[in-house]
Amino acid sequence: MIDGVRVFRSRVLFAAGCVMCAVLVTMWTLSLIYGDGSFGAMMCPLGTSWLPIFAWFGTFRPRLIATPTGVTVVEPLRTTTVPWDQIRRFDSLDVLHVHRKDGPSLRVTSLSTNNINRAARREGHADRVARDLNVLLARHRGGRAPRITTDTEAGRTRLRLNVWHAAYPVGALLFSAGSTWGQLWLALLGPLVIIVATVVLRRRASARG
Predict the structure, then answer these.
(1) Element (H, E) at 174
(2) Is this prediction's pTM over 0.85?
(3) Which of 208, 200, 149, 168 is nearest to 16 (CA)?
């Protein structure tokens, strides 16, 4: 049996959300102290006021909750609960996969392993979470944890680093530079680059799968 509740989340995403909120608070503070109250001085703070909403849905909300009855995957706009009896195993490649006995596997995109660790074949965050969840699954079944192998639905897809993976640090750099220099268009360009790269990489992964 499983006692208590365990919450698995990405510390990187959580830290990114804290940074976004800190940037917004800093910009508003500086604007109120040094600004002259004109529209131009308030444009950048007002333009980035959406950051707490993005931080909540994109960084604070996503997580996986393991309870005595099953696991709940909380995504930005959707929540899915899977009972332990319906789970075959957990494994990971780029992100954590919840393999169900009936139906397609469930991808937990907030629990991932960075590309550098994956390319170097080092254990990442998603791998550790999958291992811990398999132990919990074994406790529920009263037996041993399922063996994780590369011959799985997730493991058959090889991760290939390409130019689109570079969009993530580039997008973060653009956002940081735009926030520092007070250039709203540059700050907004960063998330846009990341969104486009994510869409392209997901389409490529679906085509390979």
Answers:
(1) helix 167-181
(2) no
(3) 168
N-terminal to C-terminal alpha carbon distance within the chain: 35
d(CA 139, CA 135): 6
From the list 185, 88, 180, 97, the residue with the least C-alpha distance to 141 is 88
Q: What is the pLDDT along the chain (209 residues), one digit of tens a residue?
A: 567 899 999 888 888 888 888 888 887 887 777 766 666 666 766 777 777 888 888 888 999 999 999 999 999 889 999 999 999 999 887 789 999 998 888 989 888 876 556 555 677 788 889 989 998 998 888 766 555 544 444 343 444 555 565 676 778 788 878 877 878 888 888 888 888 887 887 776 655 44
With tokens 């006021």, the residue in question is 49
| Rounded-to-integer distance, Cα 31 and Cα 33, Å | 6
Amino acid letter, 84: W
